[in-house]
Amino acid sequence: MSALLLLLLLTTTPVGSEAGALPHIKSIVFKSREYENTSQVCVGTSTTSSLFSESGNCVINRGGAASSVAASTDAVITTSESALTFLGVVGSWLAFRDAITQRVQEFWADADRFKFLLAGAIAGVVSRTAVAPLEVVATAQMVRGGNKNMITELTEIFRAEGVSGLFKGNGANCLKVAPTRGVQFFAFESFKGRIVEWKRKRLGASPDDNITLTPIERLVAGGFAGMIASSLVYPLEVVKTMLTMYPGRYSSIGAAFAGVIQDAGPRGLYQGLTPTLFAMFPYVGVEFMIYETSKIALEAIIKRRANEAGEDPVLATLPVFVSLGLGALAGAAAQSSAHPLDVVRKRLQVQGINGNPVLYKNTIDCMVGVARKNGIGALYKGVGPACVATIPGTGIAYITYEVMKKVLGLSSV
Fold first, then answer.
1. What is the DSSP letter of 253?
2. CATH T-level assignment (fold) for domain 112-408
3. Contact yes or no for 321/344 (Cβ under 8 A)
4. How many C-beta atoms surround the C-beta of residue 281 within 10 A?
5. How many helices (H) and strands (E) in the chain?
6. CA quadruple 168, 170, 176, 181: dihedral sign
7. For 212, what's the count of Cα atoms within 13 Å in the CB-facing half-sphere?
8. Are 338 and 383 in contact (CB under 8 A)?
9. How many Å apart are CA 141 and CA 154, to the nearest integer?
10. Is the model's pLDDT at 62 over the cut of 70?
């Protein structure tokens, strides 16, 4: 009942005229006032129901008592006061609702930073869920090694664990990738804006002058954005690896957190952070640089051709499949450039946890040790499924991000 009342209050607007007032309450107030003017005549009424006729006139029944009339008068006046109190509460709630709505609208109108975070987070969750099975295979091959191909690995996981096995660790992955991608896109846009302002001041340009960024400047902005995002959510990366590699041991994300801390202490949540930060700079930097540089170049060509054809260049945009291809190209290049450090990161994450021996002291020791024991090719183990997962995943992420930017009314430099 309370929920229905709240819904009614939220979906109705106050009307100043009597036509918008509640009819029952208006009737009660009217009759109480009319009765006050005729109370001396209506003596002897025995019941409240017989106090007024349908026309609102006083009706006197024989045999009534004056005390019953007084009681009826008190009841009507009390009802009138309750109604007025209720109207006051409703009016206060409607004023509060309007004030909150106005504040939210004002916040949303100037909340570009939050919108970039939201757009990036949604893009990350959609893209990562779409390629979760390939992510599982890539993680397994990077940690375990071996010579199984991607199809064999997928088939064995499906036979042993069913469909859920292909998405194990995806909850922690989405919990990680949502803030990661959100912070990445937000930080990337922020860094680009700062570089543009720095170049504008250095060149003495006016605020209306168009300042363009070079591919290297986009790489630097993307690299720092990747490092910041990864450092903020790195414990979730460790938990995701644990859930992917040992799904039977950890029943939930919280259990995986507790297990890592129990086995390796709080420092276990940050094992492999150093190679991650080293890897994120070229990984995210190359990804953003290739995608945005290619996108801007192709959009310039399309708009120029539209202008030559007498069409509106503003309406000329990249087709969806082209954006998907650019994202895929950027993702493949980024994954290939940083994959050896990704392998080192995974190896460092699992050592000393769940009975795994501690084999490596640091990033360099791990990289050299893996190469000596298994050859240079071991540093690229899992690059196939990783690229297969990255290619559509990155493409989907950028398409989703571009869609969200249009929905939220955002623009980039």
1. H
2. Mitochondrial carrier fold (1.50.40)
3. no
4. 20
5. 14, 0
6. positive
7. 7
8. no
9. 11
10. no
Q: Are 401 and 125 in contact (CB under 8 A)?
A: no
Task: Return the half-sphere exposure (C-beta side, CA atoms, 13 A cut-off) of residue 150.
Answer: 15
Write out the two tokens for 75: 């009841």
Q: Nearest to residue 386, comparing CAs of 129, 128, 135?
A: 135
Angle in degrees, CA 320, 322, 328, rounded to 5: 105
Task: Kindly list the domain boundaries of the chain, sorted by start residue.
Answer: 2-108, 112-408
Instruction: Give the integer Cα–Cα distance in Å for 94 and 116.
Output: 32
Q: State residue 150 phi and psi, 5-degree precision.
A: -65, -40
Strand spans (E) along 219-320: none
Contact 123, 400 (CB under 8 A): yes
In angstroms, the CA 395 to CA 412 distance is: 18
In terms of pLDDT, which residue wins out, 163 or 182?
A: 182
Question: What type of residue sits at position 181?
Answer: R
> How many Å apart are CA 98 and CA 89, to the nearest integer?
14
Two tokens at 220? 């630097």
Both tokens of 97, joined, read 């609702």
Q: Residue 407 carries which side chain, given as an amino acid letter?
A: V
What's the token pair of residue 179? 């803030």
Q: pLDDT tens across 148-173, in order?
A: 777 788 888 888 888 888 888 788 77
Question: Which tokens belong to 143?
Answer: 């940690």
Q: Give the mean pLDDT of 99-119.
A: 75
| Structural tokens at position 305 | 């051709």
Average pLDDT over residues 38-52: 42
CA distances from 13 to 21, 90, 183 (A): 11, 11, 39
Rounded to 5 degrees, what angle do the CA atoms 390, 394, 400 make?
Answer: 150
By CB atoms closer than 10 A (0-12, 13-18, 19+), residue 315 is: exposed
* Residue that has been written with the tokens 């991000």 in this structure: 401
Q: What is the pLDDT of residues 211-264, one digit of tens each?
A: 889 999 999 999 999 999 988 888 888 887 788 777 778 878 888 888 888 888
288, 221 contact by CB (below 8 A): yes
pLDDT of residue 15: 39
Structure tokens belonging to residue 103:
């504040």
pTM of the prediction?
0.63
